[in-house]
């Protein structure tokens, strides 16, 4: 399928779901259906299998516009081709919102059940926690500085795509497997302050910090937030793709403009998009104007090294680079794409105790309790059991070519659940955090200079000026976050989006349990002599539902008997 056809199908799909007005945050009325993205710790076994097998097929399906590369490589090529227009200006978050949706549409053509998950790394900010997560059994484990990953579903793939401009930072990646910038085993054992800072994700407090700082501005709040969000998002890229040493070379795909070649890219950017959605919910509640929510620099007039001198040219009519038929007005809100984010439920935040699940229901537990060493089914067998494709993008060869990912692993064990009690962490008597979250006590490392220079390579001033200014700005964000936490006045963001998501999930579970209690009582209600005994048993089984068996019994009259 040609790129023009892919673009056309994406635009057609956008038109099919309807276009929500630019003032319509949260308005899904035009959607015939919605696509729900889940946090990685909430994915079911079958959802992970769909995720892995669908991406594997895209990794071996030739791209019809250039049969020398695959469909998956084409996604990386698009991002690389438009690098100069989609970074270092305020369209960054909006373009990437569309891009992950566009790629998701293409992958749904392979398997209609496909959805990108997201990883709430702002909660799992500590390397002592994220490095030990079972998730690496899915996406592969870093083995060293610039060496191929091992394990997971994608360690066998070998990319051939190259950059026509032969950019200096792409030299290590020609004819390369997926690489990362560290050994996961070394990250697990990291002890030094420098290592802990380098491998620390931007935390919930950091994102709250920039939200609070920019939301207070009377004008141009989005411009302020968009810049800082782009900087914080870079922390994850540099952890995965940039060496933690004096040279700070880019040795993993995530450290380059071909970052979409590593599946981590889309899991990360789905989370960045969710954070944007959260921020927009807060701005809507604060009744921020449309002019406040869309402003800043644009692809044709990029950032100045002095942020205050940057142009203000981004509008609803600004075109998305690569898609001349689409503008900011088409993608400002997730609801326009009929995308929803399920709030994180089972992720254990950094600093929390890890609680293993007490049952093996894989459809409910996500990862399930399966040995990572179990024999992996072959691709042929797994792909044939996946949901049928809605429309094939092209036909993959029956026999896997060299470099095809060797098998699909069973999902690793070790999944975790909500800390006991499901309580928020009080700070000065105010609950501002999701369940189990512990604020960071040390800052993350500033962004590497080479990374900043790559991001701002086409900006109007010398890249050294941007590197100096942005490093200082990012360090100030991280340091002020920690300082406020230490002072007992941590920054707050759109809290309700985090807390209420958990409440809703637990509330729904409560309703289900209550209904189950009523069913049990109804089933045994005809046994008059044992009714009280059954009611007491139901009380014990469902005591946390708030509806006791005895109360339920009193609501039900049985024929030929007194009211129980």
TrEMBL record:
Could you tell me which residue ranges the Tyrosinase copper-binding domain spans?
262-273
Source species, domain of life? Eukaryota
**PROSITE patterns found in the cross-reference section:** TYROSINASE_2 (PS00498)
Coiled coil residues, start to end: none
Q: Where is the composition biased (Polar residues)?
A: 413-423
UniProt region (Disordered), positions on chain? 352-423
Q: Which UniProt keywords apply?
A: Copper, Metal-binding, Signal
UniProt-recorded Gene Ontology molecular function terms: metal ion binding; oxidoreductase activity
Is Ribosomal protein among this UniProt entry's keywords? no
Q: Which PANTHER family match?
A: TYROSINASE FAMILY MEMBER (PTHR11474), TYROSINASE-LIKE PROTEIN TYR-1-RELATED (PTHR11474:SF126)
Q: What is this protein called?
A: Tyrosinase copper-binding domain-containing protein
- Species per Swiss-Prot/TrEMBL record: Geranomyces variabilis
